[in-house]
Amino acid sequence: MSGTYDVVITGGGMSGMMAAIALADMGRRVAVVSKGDPVCCLSTGCIDVLAAGNNPLGGIGSLPDNHPYHLAGEDLVRISLEMFKAVMSEEGMAYAGDMHANRRILTPLGRHKITCLVPGTMKFANFHPDEYIHVISFNKMKDFYPNYITSNYKNAGCSIFDAGVSTTMSIAQRFENRRFLEGFISWLKGLDIPEGRIAIPAVIGMHSAADVCNEISVELGRKVFEIPTLPPSIPGLRLFGGLKNALLKRGVDLYWGKEIYSVEKSGNQIEAVTLAGDGRPTRVQGNAFILATGSFVSGGLHASMDTVRETVFNLPVYLPGRRESWFNNDFFAPGHAIENAGICVDKSFRPVDARVENLFVCGSILAFSEVMKYGCGHGMAIATGVAAANACGEPV
Amino acid sequence: MIKTDVIIIGGGSTGCGIARDLALRNIPHCLVEKGDFAAGATGACHGLLHSGGRYAVNDSEAAAECISENMILRKIGVKCVEQTGGLFVRLPGDSKRFRDMFLKGCEETGIPTEVLSPSRALDLVPNLNQSLEEAIKVPDCSIDPFRLCMLNITSSQKRGGKIMTHNRVIDIIRERGRCVGVKVQDKSTSEVTEIRGRIIINAAGAWGNKIASMAGSGVPMTLSKGSLIITNHRLTNMVINRLRPSSDGDIIVPNEAVCLAGTTSITVNDPDESEVDPAEVDVIATQAQEMLPDFGSTRLIRTYAGVRPLLKANGGDDRKISRGFRIIDHENGMFSIMGGKLTTYRLMAEKISDKVVEAFGLKTKCRTAEIPLEGQEELSGYPLSKRLKTLENIVCECELVTADDVEKVATEIGTRHIGDIQHRTRLGMGPCQGGFCTYRALGIMQETGKMAPEESMRVLREFLQRRFKGIKPALWGDQLREEQLVESIYLGILGMEQEQ
Questions:
Q1: Residue B72: what are its φ and ψ, rounded to 5°?
Q2: What is the 3-state secondary structure (H, E, C) of chain A?
């Protein structure tokens, strides 16, 4: 397979997929190239916009001047998040949340994670500490230990269901089965939980989790919510599945599981990338390119003993000093200097000092994003993805 | 109050070796240790059973001790010694004169050597630097220091030895100028126990001077920090040394599924000072890469440092201090044993136990060199086939440790320390360094009632801080990817920011 496109997006994560949706909606012919499933599969599925502070959207103005959110601007951040919500609703995975007020969800350690938009299955995760919580666990599930949670509340109980399987993936798949779900619900009814809410690790189905959650709620007459678990995280996989489906619906071509091994340039223009895989090279040609390969975890950036390089186009990378200064001593103090590493761009998302005109950069590979420090991972990816799409959509 | 004949302070290789030696001579004893076994220099060394080659040129006494103990330990400790053999590799530019001195020193101290051409060396270790000049084969081995301590302790416990880990000495009891006992405090419960004995042996290693000073004496020692790096796989099946005078980054030792590369030598004042400097990592990694070029592209999963308790020298380079040992009779009922090495731990234990026997007016002979370490027959090793039997229950995917293994150890030794579980099962020793499985192991300990949930949260926090301290100095490449993932799990998914 090979092809020619208006825009070729390298990286199939949150920012790349949102950029693809935005461009496809503008009527552009788009391809997404990704070496594998994205990092959002490992996430809680929640959209952190700005967890540091109370007002996510309103807090953007007070971020440092070089933060990538400013490139998009508050209006576009809002518009892109609305767009994300609309896309997920179309996919039957409506998100809840208020862009002007953060909310809390329960974590497997019985603590709280602060976030902004949450999947419908976590809508009721923000509860009063005095309210009774009944935690459901699954037999032999190795990443979920309800004692961590119940010990934090004076009013909490726990029951364990035997699903016959023990991994998050296999339990979630069971929930797609009607008879399994009915069995689970009748077991739950038999518990005679007297009051309060029911908390279940996030394994109640793959794509139909929202319906499953609803059905349990209705049948039990209780508020039910999910607790996101360690990777592989089912809500993260659902999020990815939803967006991927939205791309396919829009006719976006996906080149998945293929790594870019060469880039063709002519003057200040990138003309094509060549992908490895399927036994022979695939050439993907584009008028414009968007770099959305993410930071270190996804492999967009690679650190060696004393330097950091960008792995696809070899763009200049901003580096926050020598290695000794990359990390804080305290594991729990977010904001290691290395989080600033990345690509510096101009107002139109073009890389600075790179001598390419048709390349745009978005997502966590952008310099100064400090995703962990500000709690802005998916929010920043969505906003810059859409903003970069707008920037590159114009001249085409 | 506990009454015994000999109180041993320190659960490193020396202390554990003394416990075994005394046990085999039927002398009642009690060993106290502030942490787990092998918590000091023993557990933080490179796990090398020296052939003595490293000391052949400058320290012939230590070299001779090493080769003779090496031959004993490989016989009595088959399950904790891996007979890897070692190479001293001479690279372009390394002194030929030193090579001649090395061969001469080995001959004089009885260390067998074999000079190998580059092609023969490459047959043995194919990923050696291709441009090597030659290699000299010596009988180096890799040794599991933690297992060694445990096996020594087994002999002691079988014969009624009293062993108290996680108990710190807070006072030495003296009556009429003589040391007659110690007071120890339990780390978890803060409970204080008084132990009375006729002789106290200070085998506290780097903490020896602190102990001696509690008894109104002191021991002359130099503390030398040595840092090491752990690779995520086994790059070589033989120990690789650089054939040149002792220097930073001159050794790579295979150990189970990984390799340990080191070391450095920096004088420190405090035995608890074990921070690894990124600059040390750079030196070790660069030097190791000269011997094994693959080292440069290998993921480094952790760094650690130990503090060597060396005999005091008058200034100069720590590396020139003899690795020999010394026994000091404080003439107040306390003996201190100083210096030495893991390789010579048995000999050290023998010599000080001889002193004890002499003081008690007995004539029993040391038997530790003849009798194999007991308890080895029960050790399964870590055969993959056995571990894969219970695949679905695995909580540590790197080292294939099951939930049952964790429960079993927690129940058997009744511990509240996650480190005890890690040492005894290898949980968390693999590439993720406990990033995933510690949370699970603590969850299991809660479920079995071994640990209160609040305590497990505190332990988890402490664990993550300690882990990060070890990982941070060598954080780049794929290890950086994994570390950011672990960070996003604990700070993001689990919501463990600074105290809420």
A1: -70, -50
A2: CCEEEEEEEECCCHHHHHHHHHHHHCCCCEEEEECCCCHHHHCCCCECCCCCCCCHHHHHHHCCCCCCHHHHCHHHHHHHHHHHHHHHHHCCCCEECECCECEEEECCCCCEEEECEEEHHHCCCCCCCCCCEEEEEECCCCCCCCHHHHCCCCCEEEEEECCCCCCHHHHHHHCCCHHHHHHHHHHHHHCCCCCCEEEEECCCCCCCHHHHHHHHHHHHCCCEEEECCCCCCHHHHHHHHHHHHHHHHCCCEEEECCCEEEEEEECCEEEEEEECCCCCCEEEEEEEEEECCCCCCCCCEEECCCCEEECCCCCCCECCCCHHHCCCCCCCCCCCHHHHCEECECCCCCECCCCCCCEEECHHHECCCCHHHHCCHHHHHHHHHHHHHHHHHCCC
A151–B444 C-beta distance less than 8 A: no
- A333 touches B: beta carbon within 8 Å: yes
pLDDT in tens, B299-351: 999 999 999 999 886 555 667 677 789 999 999 999 999 999 999 999 999 99
* Tokens of residue A118, six digits: 């949450």
Determine phi and psi for B457, rounding to 5 degrees: -65, -40
B329 neighbors B355 (Cβ within 8 angstroms): yes
- The residues that bridge with A361 in the sheet, in sequence order, are A291
* CA torsion, ordered A23, A25, A30, A32, to nearest 10 deg: 80
What is the pairing mode between strands A133-138 and A156-161? parallel
Task: Tell me the longest C-alpha to C-alpha distance in chain B.
Answer: 68
Question: Fold for domain B81-141+222-308?
Answer: D-Amino Acid Oxidase; Chain A, domain 2 (3.30.9)
Nearest CA in chain A to B275: A329
* Domain B2-41+146-219+322-359 shares a fold with domain B81-141+222-308: no
- Taking CA atoms, B265 is separated from A229, B29, B249, B251, B309, in Å, by 44, 35, 10, 13, 12
**What pLDDT shows up at residue B327?**
94
Q: Is the pLDDT of residue A220 over 90?
A: yes
Chain A interface, mutation test: which of B298, B464, B490, B497, most A Cβ atoms within 10 Å? Answer: B497
For residue A120, pLDDT over 60 is answered with yes
Nearest to A230 among B436, B481, B498 (CB): B436
Q: Hey, what CATH class is A3-94+237-393 in?
A: alpha beta
Over the stretch A227-281, which tens digit does the pLDDT of each residue have?
999 998 999 999 999 999 999 999 999 999 999 999 999 999 999 999 987 778 8
Q: What is the mean pLDDT of residues B266-285?
A: 93
Closest residue to B464, CB basis, from A166, A323, A331: A331
Domain boundaries, given as residue ranges, for chain B? 2-41+146-219+322-359, 81-141+222-308, 383-493
Which residue type is seen at B491? Answer: L
Model confidence band, residue B412 (pLDDT cutoffs 50, 70, 90): confident
**ipTM of the complex as predicted:** 0.94
pLDDT the model gives residue B388? 65
CATH class of domain segment(s) B2-41+146-219+322-359: alpha beta
**Residue A388: closest CA among A365, A355, A371, A370:** A365
- Its sign, for the CA torsion A198, A202, A206, A210, is positive
Q: Are B68 and B51 in contact (CB under 8 A)?
A: no
The gap from C-alpha B370 to its chain's centroid, in whole angstroms, comes to: 23
Chain B residues near residue A229 by CB distance under 8 angstroms:
493
The answer to whether the CB atoms of A142 and B447 lie below 8 A apart is: no
The model's pLDDT over A287-308, given as tens digits with 9 standing for 90+, comes to 999 999 999 999 999 999 989 9
Residue extents of the structural domains in chain A: 3-94+237-393, 128-222
Nearest C-alpha in B relative to A235: B493
Q: Is residue A7 scored above 70 in pLDDT?
A: yes
